Amino acid sequence: MKKFFLITLMALAVSLQSAVANDGVFYVNGNHLIPLEETDISIKKEILTITLSDDGFASVDVQYEMVNNGAPKTVTMGFEASVPYNDGESFNKNCTHPNIKDFSATMNGQLLPLKNGVIQATNEEGAEKDFIPLDLKVWREPRESDPEYEENGADMIHMLYNPSTKEYMRYSYAYYFTANFKQGVNTIHHTYRYEMSNGVGRSFEVPYWLTPAMRWANHQIDDFTLRIKTDNATKHFLVDCNSFNPNGFKVTSGKGKVRTLEATDYRNRMAEVVLRNGTVEYHAVNFVANEDMAINSADQLYEAPDDDILYYDSGETFYPIYVDSWTPSRFGVKDKKGNFAKRLLRNLPYAHRGYVFKDPDLRKVFESQWWYMPDPNFTPTESTFHAHEWRLINENK
User: Fold this and answer.
1) In this predicted model, which residue has the larger pLDDT, 201 or 387?
2) How far, in whole angstroms, is CA 4 from its chain's centroid?
3) CA-CA distance, 74 to 178, in Å (whole number)?
4) Residue 269 — pLDDT band, cuts 50, 70, 90?
5) Closest among 289, 290, 292, 296 to 224, alpha carbons compared
6) 3-state secondary structure of 123
7) For the residues 30-48, what does the mean pLDDT come to?
8) pTM of this prediction?
């Protein structure tokens, strides 16, 4: 049976409504370039750029230089995106993922025509498999009258059913194209946008599988660069991956800070980053990934008041501040009128963007926070804040 090459997308999670506690909606699931039977092609260089924005979307831009040490060859390469999980989406018969936008791929400067299909889903280990689009004349959505439908319940949204063989199959959406590798250096560039994600205890989560890239001929990325950008946004996040040295992250543009969080009983050693309209970068040569990566919001660090740690979760946007009746006393602030907590809450969106406070009490609290980055040039306008931030401001006047 013909083998194919597989490029798969990120794993993302989006929380359910507040009525559901410990669950999430998974929009896209996948990984990195995976060679199934390739021994001649190696990854010379990769620049992976992940942009976190405030418009509800994140984007990925991946540029590869790959070296074909053998004769010219033609292969099929594909992008796999898992079916949306638990968000009510039914099977999309045109085979395009409902949460992926602006998908493109080029090779050696030529835009490649894309095809769409449905394939058997890759398991969590990313095991090798045939990247063969399913025949949708044979496979269809399960029906209540099908065998074992009632026993499997809601899980059926992830399945297709073959009435002839009476078997079920977990499926993914696929974007695939023909790639003509010339001898020597080849360039591959792909981009896409997808809905930002959040889950229980996190306002956003961006996992990205790095380890499958180790299965190319050189079993490493000779020259690897990761760039995380926040265009017109401020984000506070953790980069969790033992394949990285957290001290290797550097802010290369915009306003930002990076520090290393040492490992504890419940977390890995990781980089903590706060970044406004900027870029943080990690570079390595002969990079070997022994673990996959996750970019997670820093919410988990601020789950309860502890000394000068503050936390507030608006339900839509994370702010690292916890406000309760004890907040003034923790910071030595006299709160005669009992309204200091509200003052903190309505000023959070301003602090998040670096507003320089004239009020000595507000300045004392916010300047004590590591994530706060004052910006004397910041001037708020009517369009500065999102709707939920205006609600936070107006509800606490």
Assistant:
1) 387
2) 26
3) 7
4) confident
5) 289
6) coil
7) 71
8) 0.81
Q: Mean pLDDT over all residues of the chain?
A: 78
In this structure, what token pair is assigned to residue 320?
């690292």
Where do runs of H (alpha helix) occur along the chain? 149-152, 327-330, 340-352, 360-367, 387-395
Do the beta carbons of residue 30 and residue 208 sit within 8 Å?
A: no
Higher pLDDT, 228 or 177: 228
What pLDDT was estimated at residue 30?
41
Q: Please name the amino acid found at residue 288.
A: V
- The 10 Å CB-count burial string (b at 16+, else e) for 35-44 is beebeebbbb
The two tokens of residue 69 are 């040490």
Q: What is the CB neighbour count within 10 angstroms for residue 138?
A: 12
Contact between residue 172 and residue 100 where contact means Cβ atoms under 8 Å apart: no
Q: Look at residue 323 in the predicted model and tell me its pLDDT.
A: 65
Contact 86/25 with Cβ under 8 angstroms? yes
Do 287 and 220 meet the contact criterion of CB atoms below 8 Å apart? Answer: yes
d(CA 353, CA 278): 13
Q: Which residue has the tokens 């660090």?
A: 301
Confidence of residue 201 (pLDDT cuts 50, 70, 90): low
CA dist., res. 195 & res. 178, Å (int) = 27
> What phi, psi does 355 have (nearest 5°)?
-55, 135
pLDDT of residue 137: 92
- Kind plus residue range of the DSSP H or E element containing 237: strand 234-240
Residue 66 pairs in a beta bridge with 43, 186
Q: Of the candidates 171, 182, 187, 179, which has an alpha carbon nearest to the alpha carbon of residue 114?
A: 179
Q: Give the mean model confidence (pLDDT) for residues 54-70.
A: 88
pLDDT band at 207 (very low <50, low <70, confident <90, very high): confident
Q: Which helix (H) or strand (E) holds 41?
A: strand 41-52
Paired tokens of 231: 């265009």
